[in-house]
Amino acid sequence: xxxxxxxxxxxxxxxxxxxxxxxxxxxxxxxxxxxxxxxxxxxxxxxxxxxxxxxxxxxxxxxxxxxxxxxxxxxxxxxxxxxxxxxxxxxxxxxxxxxxxxxxxxxxxxxxxxxxxxxxxxxxxxxxxxxxxxxxxxxxxxxxxxxxxxxxxxxxxxxxxxxxxxxxxxxxxxxxxxxxxxxxxxxxxxxxxxxxxxxxxxxxxxxxxxxxxxxxxxxxxxxxxxxxxxxxxxxxxxxxxxxxxxxxxxxxxxxxxxxx
Amino acid sequence: xxxxxxxxxxxxxxxxxxxxxxxxxxxxxxxxxxxxxxxxxxxxxxxxxxxxxxxxxxxxxxxxxxxxxxxxxxxxxxxxxxxxxxxxxxxxxxxxxxxxxxxxxxxxxxxxxxxxxxxxxxxxxxxxxxxxxxxxxxxxxxxxxxxxxxxxxxxxxxxxxxxxxxxxxxxxxxxxxxxxxxxxxxxxxxxxxxxxxxxxxxxxxxxxxxxxxxxxxxxxxxxxxxxxxxxxxxxxxxxxxxxxxxxxxx
Lengths: 260, 250
What we know:
The complex is a heterodimer. Chain A is α/β, with parallel strands linked by helices. Chain A is built from 10 helices and 10 strands. Chain B is mainly alpha-helical. Helix content of chain B is 81%, strand content 0%. Chain B is built from 11 helices and no strands. Chain B is globular and about 65 Å long. The two termini of chain B are 37 Å apart.
């Protein structure tokens, strides 16, 4: 095991995922370092969720190595999972359980002792102190995302994996969630997030990888990507307001055609 | 930084507590599972002397077990799979089989409750009494019968991905099994079908339950029914696990 403090918290090397004959992820490699928010961007069906699912252990990659805090997700799956906090794209919990029961369940699963005071503090932190006995389905989208993030980070993981965490949120909720994601980074932990929002990627990600047709086609900081590609003809033609944005670079690199 | 892996017992006890809470909050569905067998016992009061206490108790228990395995288990698994509940649990450091084992434990407790309820109502309302060995053995045969229907439920959620389709398929299979079981065994559909029903999942479970209640009636056919029930349970569970996908979208 490597020392998690000094090296990458997540290392993906030569990842390949197939669905039957369809090659969904092709030789994807990247690293996420401590104190970094890493964004995985790509059009629909590009392979973002497949990549994330392979890291989370939800699907078996055909080849490639994944290590989380130095633990191989294949050979040390439980140790790797214990170091990850995962927020899935479509998260749901047992619909009969209340918010406090959900938090207790996941705290117990991760071996975290959750006293009443600690539970109250978590609920207070996510501004849901009055909703402890409500069911998950009774909450608004923003409240659900806050609960989901609290559940994902209840064991204070050194790597948080968030799959489109702000989809469908209003600007206030989105800003709040960004602050929470940044707070994870500020603790020296790492965050891997996928998003369709270029605004979000520019605002919170320290580095991003653009993935298309299952391959990583660019990887750098948002500013560096804009700088490198600002003179590409495809990027210029994608530009709508003269000033090149990350979205222009994204469209320039992945094309204008709609994806299913 | 030290990685904490929760003790398997701690993780499992939290899972099972959550599953029992879920079952408790679904009291209405639980009551429905108990209601049909009890209605049968109550409505058959007039014919108990004719058909015999063990026949009535075993018939009502078999229907209850069918309801628990096919309606209760399969529908709840399909619903939670559709909502992504299993995927959420699978990304945590608990072995995947814990997730299912916890649910099966809840259903096993349900089987005990059902058996106890049938005995109590049978005694209180129909004055059916069994020897102590009959009560003890029935709890065991009910568990085996329950395993068969849980396996059948698992096979349905393995074969059918969509939660709504699982819901309707389960209801259809439940009604078909009960109708064929009751009327087929009484010979209302002819001799050939009666024989088929005897060796169907419904018939073999009913046979071992009835003979378990009265050990003196246990014969070679009952032993064969026991083996066939075991075979059905293993086959259905094997296929159900083999075909099962954690994610309904795949």
